[in-house]
From TrEMBL:
Stored PROSITE patterns: ABC_TRANSPORTER_1 (PS00211), ABC_TRANSPORTER_2 (PS50893)
Pfam family, one: ABC_tran
UniProt keyword terms in alphabetical order: Amino-acid transport, ATP-binding, Nucleotide-binding, Transport
GO molecular function terms noted in the UniProt entry: ATP binding
Gene3D superfamilies assigned: P-loop containing nucleotide triphosphate hydrolases
Origin species: Sporomusa acidovorans (strain ATCC 49682 / DSM 3132 / Mol)
Positions of the ABC transporter domain: 2-233
Protein's UniProt name: High-affinity branched-chain amino acid transport ATP-binding protein LivF
Record-stated family: Belongs to the ABC transporter superfamily.
Length: 233
C-alpha cells in the first residue's frame, strides 16, 4: 500500500533520515520505534508531503506521491494525527471533527460524525465543549476522530499515548486495534515500544535516521537489542 524506498531528509545541514526503506501492507498495523530525535516524526511528515526527500521514491497504492501537495495526499486516503494532538482549542469538539472532513464532498459526513461519537462516547457527551478544555486523553481521542473524518485508508499516528495516564494509554491502544479492525491500515510511531509491538503486525527500529532493524513485531519484542534499548529489560 505504502512504499518508501531509500529516502533522505535534511533540515539544513542535519541529515535527519538516512536511506530509509520501509513499507506498509494494506490491513496492517506497522510501528516505527526509536528514541527521541530518531526521525520518526520526520518520516510521517515526509509521507504527508510536508517535507521532501531529494532521493528515492514514495508511492501510495502504486502512485508516486513524493511531489503531491498535502491536501491531495489527504484526498488520496492518508491522514496524520500529529504529535501533541494539535486540535483547535477555541473550537468545539463537533467543529474540530467537522474540520477533519473539510475536503470531503460526499453526503456521509454527518453519518461519520455519529460514528465518531460511537467510537469515542466521551466526545459525544462533550460535543459542544471547547476542545481546549478537554483532558489530554479526550484531546487525543478528538485528534484521532478528526483524522478519521477524512475517511483515510492509511492513518498515521504520532505518539498517541504521550503524556497519558496508564488507564488511558490502554484505552488508546485498544481503540487503535478497533480502528484497524474496521479496515483502516495504521502506521504507528511510538516511544511506548512495548505497547506498540503488542498491537502491531510488523515494526521498524529507527536510530539516528536509519532503519537498523525490521521484522515481525513478535520477533522484535523478543530481540535482545530491542529489549535492552526500548523495553527496559
Ligand atoms: P521525538 O520522539 O522526540 O518526537 P522523532 O524520532 O520523532 O523524535 P524527529 O522529530 O523526526 O524525531 O527529529 C529527527 C531529527 O531532526 C532530530 O535530530 C531533530 O532535532 C531534527 N529536527 C526535527 N525537526 C527539525 C527542524 N524543523 N529543524 C531542524 N532540525 C529538526
Amino acid at each position: 500500500m505504502l512504499e518508501i524506498k531509500e529516502i533522505n531528509v535534511y533540515y539544513g545541514h542535519i541529515h535527519a533520515i538516512v536511506d530509509a526503506t520501509l513499507h506498509v501492507n494494506q490491513g496492517e498495523v506497522v510501528t516505527i520505534i526509536g528514541a527521541n530525535g530518531a526521525g520518526k516524526t520526520t518520516i510521517q511528515k515526509t509521507i504527508m508531503g510536508l517535507l521532501h526527500s531529494p532521493t528515492g521514491s514514495l508511492t501510495f497504492e502504486g502512485e508516486d506521491i513524493s511531489k503531491c501537495p498535502t491536501a491531495s495526499i489527504v484526498g488520496k486516503g492518508i491522514a496524520l494525527v500529529p504529535e501533541g494532538r494539535r486540535i483547535f482549542p477555541r473550537l468545539s469538539v463537533a467543529d474540530n471533527l467537522a474540520l477533519g472532513a473539510y475536503s470531503r464532498k460526499d453526503k456521509f459526513v454527518s453519518q461519520d460524525m455519529d460514528k465518531m461519537y460511537q467510537l469515542f462516547p466521551r466526545l459525544a457527551e462533550r460535543r459542544s465543549q471547547l476542545a481546549g478544555t478537554l483532558s489530554g486523553g479526550e484531546q487525543q481521542m478528538l485528534a484521532m476522530g478528526r483524522g478519521l473524518m477524512s475517511r483515510p485508508k492509511l492513518l498515521l499516528l504520532d505518539e498517541p499515548s504521550m503524556g497519558l495516564a496508564p488507564v488511558l494509554v490502554s484505552q488508546i491502544f485498544h481503540t487503535i486495534t478497533d480502528i484497524n479492525r474496521e479496515g483502516v491500515t495504521i502506521l504507528l510511531v511510538e516511544q511506548n515500544a512495548r505497547r506498540a509491538l503488542a498491537i502491531a503486525n510488523r515494526g521498524y527500529v529507527l536510530e539516528a535516521g536509519k532503519v537498523v532493524l525490521e521484522g515481525l513485531a513478535s520477533d522484535l519484542a523478543k530481540n535482545d537489542d530491542v529489549q535492552k534499548a526500548y523495553l527496559g529489560e
